[in-house]
């Protein structure tokens, strides 16, 4: 099956995570299956574990859920034994997902900077600018220690986030 340009980016992201020694959990929140159709489900969790040889299949498996739930991956590699939960496939209504003790390495440290505001109220332009400036300060400090090329930055709409590349057991 041919991947779209967006799906090619997802595939590149999975490889960039650097989980060759472990497996990658893909988790989709607020999704499930009802009468054979993928639907939004409050508190529904779809989860699956993929080794790096099956990332293209992971992207294809995600395709039907795009636009239904919140799709994300665990940033750090999980123990390969977790493939037994859902080997290179997604399972709706998963009961077990990756716990802290099942992470085998720390490859990434996430930074998430949002302005303080009540729930449901978006950031102002000034608050967003301040959050992005604070994110940049944190990233600059850490890349000063680790060196350039060890980070990825993004914007969430209300604030900013960064991923700092590390390699720790």
Structure in words:
There is one protein chain. The chain is α+β, with helices and mostly antiparallel strands and 169 residues long. It is built from 3 helices and 7 strands. The protein has helices at residues 5-16, 55-62, 125-146; strands at residues 24-34, 37-50, 70-73, 90-91, 106-113, 151-155, 160-168. The strands form 2 sheets. A 4-stranded antiparallel β-sheet has the order 3-1-2-4. Strands 5-7-6 form a 3-stranded antiparallel β-sheet, covered by helices on one side. A hairpin with a 2-residue loop joins β1 (24-34) and β2.
In round numbers, the mean pLDDT is: 91
Number of helices: 3
The span between the termini is: 37 Å
Q: Output the structural class.
A: alpha+beta
What's the assembly state of these chains? Answer: single chain
Instruction: Indicate the radius of gyration in whole angstroms.
Output: 17 Å
Strand content: 25-35%
Helix residue percentage: 10-25%
Q: Which spans of ≥5 residues are poorly predicted at pLDDT below 50?
A: none
Number of strands: 7
Order of helices and strands: HEEHEEEHEE
Please summarize the sheet with the most strands.
Answer: 4 strands, antiparallel
Shape: globular
Spatial strand order of the main sheet: 3-1-2-4
């Amino acid at each position: 099956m041919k991947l779209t340009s967006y799906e090619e980016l997802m595939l590149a992201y999975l490889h960039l995570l650097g989980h060759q020694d472990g497996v990658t959990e893909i988790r989709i929140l607020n999704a499930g299956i009802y009468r054979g159709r993928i639907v939004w489900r409050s508190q529904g969790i779809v989860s699956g574990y993929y080794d790096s040889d099956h990332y293209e299949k992971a992207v294809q498996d995600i395709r039907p859920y795009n636009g239904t739930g919140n799709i994300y991956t665990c940033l750090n590699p999980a123990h390969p034994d977790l493939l037994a939960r859902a080997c290179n496939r997604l399972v709706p209504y998963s009961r077990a997902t990756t716990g802290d003790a099942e992470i085998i390495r720390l490859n990434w440290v996430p930074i998430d900077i949002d302005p303080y505001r009540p729930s449901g109220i978006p950031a102002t332009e000034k608050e967003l600018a301040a959050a992005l400036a604070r994110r940049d300060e944190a990233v600059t400090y850490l890349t000063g220690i680790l060196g350039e090329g060890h980070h990825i930055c993004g914007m969430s709409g209300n604030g900013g986030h960064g991923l700092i590349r590390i390699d720790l057991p």
